[in-house]
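Researcher: Before we compare anything, I want clean individual predictions. No alignment, no superposition, just each chain on its own. First chain goes here; please echo the sequence and then give the structure tokens.
Model: Echoing the first chain and its structure:
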Amino acid sequence: MKHICFSITAHGFGHGAISCSVINCLMAQYPHIKISVMTLLPKAYLDSRLAGEFDYYPMGSDFGMLMATPIEIDIENSRQKYQTLYENWQSYVETEKDQLATMKADMLISNISPISLDAAHQLGIQTASVAPFNWAQIYQAYCLNEERATQAVYRKMMSVYEKVDQVFKPLPFVPLGDGKEIEIASINDQPVAQMDVLLSKLPKSVKKIGLLALGGLPFPLDLAQWPEIESLHWLVDQTPPSARADMTQIGQLNLPFLSLIACSDLIITKPGYGTYCEIAALAKYKKVRVLSLQRPDWPETPYLKRFLSRRVPFVEVSQSQLKGESLRQVIIEINQVEYPDEMSCQSGAQQLVKALSIL
């Protein structure tokens, strides 16, 4: 029986969503494969996404980038944390080597820890990576400068990524252009609506759903200043003002977030792989419109924007527009945007599983 270990960064749920889609595809096509997951993502998150059994190891050193806000990188502290990681590199590698050796994994699929990949390389275990970028690309964009220390960190990460046996890049991705990347379709679970269940928890007058989907980090918004729009009910990720009967806190609904996406007519989000691809997959079945916070510095943004704007009405907004009449006006504007011609999304997870060298 083959044993595949997934290493998943805890930087964001989008990485978890990608990996869980691949794992579910593996479980469906090869039910006898043993699956292990090394990650600091909560087990409850994995349980909510995965269809079969897996072994869970709450460990990992991949922090990705430290965030000042949901859309702003804490550059200096990220640079310092990578320096600390570099200075203690082999110590972190040994910890994961011990775990991989103990579990007797036949392959490591990383999203996208260089430590995990290096541990597998040193043990002679087959490796693959699956992510729309690697952390060396992101480090290069924010932290790399003329100092020798930052150049050493960048070279170390790139030297590990260059040794990966199979580098899967799901659309939309940030290209490296080294000729090694295996381009596959986008990877995501298909959102499935539970509209009757949702509406039973909301006022009877509700006809349309607006969803606030800004990720796992708290984002300060003055919801009291949001416009009240007839028949539209907001699902928000923070406690709404008591006077706002048109708002419900997401946690009170006890429904999967994917289902909330599938029920929504308007989604306010930020550039991020998981949510963008889930919305794109939904577009074939439901007309949904998207307001996305501007994030021009993030390397993924132009690729994500091109991908999603070809599938749904899409408008970028500033944080200052998420209040009062400014928000009302941008909602009016996006409701007037024509829906693009249908563009279906193929399954990158199925393409990856078909191409895996170990199977």
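Researcher: Okay. Second chain, same rules.
Model: Second chain and its structure:
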Amino acid sequence: MAFTNTSPIQYPTRAAKPALGTNPISIGVNGTGGDHFLLDMATTTVAIGKMVLHKELLKEMVEIAKRRGDPIPESWGVEKGGKLSTDADKIIKGGGLFPLGGSEISGGYKGYGLGAVVEIFCGILAGAHWGPNVRKWMNATSYADLGQCFVAVDPEAFAPGFFERMQELINTLRSLPPYDGKLNVLVAGDPEDKHVKLVKELGGIPYHPNQIKNCDVLSEKLNVKKVKVAKEY
């Protein structure tokens, strides 16, 4: 297991200002035959990097929803002061992210609790900067002084047959019937394994167009060569 605290971008439930980071949790467990369960998740509804990446996409989604009369998703973040927002710019510039679960009524306090646990493991326990004392996101004028926590467990110190039972759990979850008959049930790590396979097939790493755009903007800012795209799909 691995944990780290990050810059304060998460608005705790009922708070008018951010005090916790995305504070990710990673847990890796082996099954048999090279199979595994590999969870890597933020304790916010979305990782801040994904918010930046999909800023333009989110704007487009909001506009389409408005034209259709569909409800606009309000689970990702808030503008400055803690008010619900579907404006990616307001969320990124001055606002922040909801805890995992969203608002209080939908269980956001649980994500807030998880984020606080990571803060305890990494900031408080390690004697590192914690909560609002960590430098702001994208601020490079001071040291972040983040803390990390790593936990290693030897399954052999417990009941025998752990890896076989773990594989049985993985197989059981994957074999559940999908509700729509199209998308299979996955376990943590399956999407990443699929992506690794795609990289091997393509002979390179596929990037989202917005990632390339962000790289181009940074290249111009630093006056360096732009990223060269080998092939477009």
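Researcher: What stands out in the second chain?
Model: The helical segments are 48-53, 55-68, 88-92, 108-124, 162-174, 190-202, 209-222. Additionally, Strands lie at 2-4, 25-30, 36-41, 77-78, 84-85, 96-97, 148-150.
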